[in-house]
Amino acid sequence: MMRKIFIACVAASMAALFACQSSKTVKATLSDLKGEWNILSVDGVDVTVPEGQEAPFIGFDTTEGQLFGNASCNYIMGSFDMNSEPGVIDFSGMASTRRMCPDMALEQKILEAFGRVKSYSLTADGDIQLSDADGKAVMLLEKRDPQVSARDLNGVWNVKTLADTPVESPEGKPYQFTFNLSDMTFFVTTDCNNLNGQFKSEANELEFFSVAATMMACENMAFEDNIKAVINDVTTYKITSDTLLTLYNKENIPVVTMVKESSL
What we know:
Layout: H1 2-23, E1 25-27, H2 30-33, E2 35-42, E3 45-46, E4 57-61, E5 66-70, E6 75-79, E7 95-96, H3 105-114, E8 119-123, E9 128-131, E10 137-144, H4 150-153, E11 155-162, E12 165-166, E13 176-180, E14 185-188, E15 195-202, E16 205-213, H5 222-231, E17 234-240, E18 244-249, E19 254-262
Antiparallel strand pairs: 1-8, 2-3, 2-4, 2-10, 4-5, 5-6, 6-7, 8-9, 9-10, 11-12, 11-13, 11-19, 13-14, 14-15, 15-16, 17-18, 18-19
């Protein structure tokens, strides 16, 4: 009987020792953060994504010191100090869009947790652990394959083709399409009335809504009329080589192509 108890105690001790060893992290550097990461857990509790909402993730652009992602409802964005000591990070520069979703509990928990993060480290599995000022784990991040996101839309784009036909204004200037991620709005220049409205995007899906325009009557309104009709049918998009944007309708037919002019 005593032998069985001894063996059980040894086994329990070994299991505990293994658990402690496997939970240890090592110092990480800025290059370890590069890329996109799924948020697996917050304060030791596994993330459960609300139905119909996006799996939360965060991305680090270690070239520009920018961060981006989604907290399950709203897009997150901001900057971080690339000159901080290795393993040190602060998310006080983080902001988010302001949509309302049916379930905001997970998002609120994630945003509150980011506010407590002061450091990062690598786990034995190659994941990233974000910790608070006392070294206590706050979040666990798992590397994910890069995906198209609304962040990639952000900026000014020159329209090259509309319904497979090259377009250019009579003055020789490009028509421009601007996406502003900070408030999820868009703006389109035409020969007469400029268009504006809102957009929403998840993965490669794209939808324009609340489209409005001024009401001037002009001689040349062909592009304006055509772009109005086209954007109402847009359902998806694709970005090639970071500079070519193609919008597709529900039949997966390309209806607009654009080339990146600048970022916002």
